[in-house]
Amino acid sequence: MSEEKEMTFSEAIHKASSSITRFPLIPVRGVPLMNYIANNWDSIWDFCPDPSDLLIATYPKAGTTWTQEIVDLLLHNGDAEACKRAPTPVRSPFLEIFSPPPIPSGLDLLEKMDPPRVIKTHLPFQLVPPGFWENKCKAIYVARNAKDNLVSYYYFDLMNQTQPEPGPFGGYIHKFMQGQLSWGSWYDHVKGYWLEREKRNILYLFYEDMKENPRREVERIMKYLDLSVSDEVISQIVELTSFKNMKENPMANYSCVPSPVFDQSISPFMRKGEVGDWKNHFTAEQSKLFDEDYEKQMKDVDIPFRTLI
User: Fold this and answer.
1) What's this model's pTM, rounded to 2 decimal places?
2) Which UniProt keywords apply (predicted)?
3) Of 39, 40, 123, 231, which is least surrounded by CB within 10 A?
4) Residue 237 lies in a domain
5) Catalytic residue at 174?
């Protein structure tokens, strides 16, 4: 059954890959989203989850796939084979994604699954369907420091043939600062979930903490999900979700997506997974300009980000 599912998903992307283009962005309530998402917005907004569903929310390239894999392994008591039943986007559907047919939308995949489901989103807090909060669903949010997040997103936009052309890195910095990328402003995104985290019982994690002490963060996720697995299983999950192992795992590294869509010869989906790689990309002048703008945009909150560990 799972093999059939996996083939269906991969085949659908292969069939549609010839019609894939860089889709334009259309604002939805002021947030730029790819036209396929914007054109199907009503059905996304109306999605009503089961109270047992779990939402994993991030700004793009902030540790989403990593967190999805940790959660799936926790739910399957560290069983690596069970977590190879299908690629990540089939096991944990991407709520708002819509693509050219016959690629199934996130809503199509969710419709075929029984709760409890693990659901991924990049939507900022204000665009998350209200059913998640009305039904008191649990939500895990992962935030990554702005500079590393920007660099990772830049490389992703280079290889992802569905998002707008990123242009030169220097110009991309300005697009990031002005919130002109798919899913909008990083600043609004990290702040939106931070300000609602206690009221909505959101587990707010930092990518840098996960890199620094993955075991501690896996245990935090386990407790939040009211699960209990042995120390041995925790160790196994930490090992299975190391960057090296996930990069080599065909069910997690997005190798199921063909090169006309994700051209991994330009940049791998899993590129470096490091903290501080921004130092290899920002000039001193760009870093100063970015830091000054950052201070202005983040002055109203005190979120403990780290750009190095």
Assistant:
1) 0.94
2) Catecholamine metabolism, Cytoplasm, Transferase
3) 231
4) yes
5) no
